[in-house]
Amino acid sequence: MPGSQLPRRRVLGSAAALAGGVLLGSATPALARTPKAADAPRIYTREEWGAAPPQEVATILDHGPDHLVVHHTASANTTDYSQNAAFALSRSIQDLHMNTNGWGDTGQQLTISRGGFVMEGRNRTLESFSEKLLVMGAQTANENSHTLGIENEGTYISETPPDALYNSLVDSLAYLCTLYGLDPQEAIVGHRDYVSTQCPGDAFYAKLPQLRNDVAGKLGTAKRTVNRVTRIFTNLPKPHFRYDHGPAVGRGELR
Question: In the β-sheet with 43-44, what is the strand arrangement from edge to edge?
Fold first, then answer.
């Protein structure tokens, strides 16, 4: 229901539990002490990258996210790191999400190109940031009411993201942890932590502990290994087509 806070999940969904994963922490993983504030990265607006008008005005919920979900776009690992390529990526994703998937707009809240350009995704995302609330996205099936999704351009099954993308992701996550008062060690997760999918890729997923520590370092908080229940992932579904990073919308969720 628009504007209402749905129950938040503390453990994995059944599909992910069968495939293996982590048990997520508390519903609202907050820092025990005040971290250093991280400035907002340069986020290019929808107007700047040339977004089409959304078919539906997105819903801003009455709460912020409790987890920040790392995705890969399951597209080519391009060597065109230009701003033009980044903007074209956002337009291409929006076209697929609206005109093929039948959604009201781009699904994720943020997109980061391989060149490190950070772009607003779903309409009203930056508005929701200004209010420290969450715009309802379509990026992690059955978990969209409490998670914020970041798409990272490329496919990272056997290789990791380039430095420009990775550094922008660290900056973006540090800013979001500051904005919402989240502990990066608990809040930063991968798409596969909720559903059975390859996303964000074996190589990138294995890098998430380092990512959490790099974000923590930027915030001046402790680097540590969170006690997580892990299992070995095997035979996870791979992308079937470009931008197919796995289940993004559950039954009854806004699209």
Answer: 43-44, 118-120, 110-112, 147-152, 67-72, 188-190
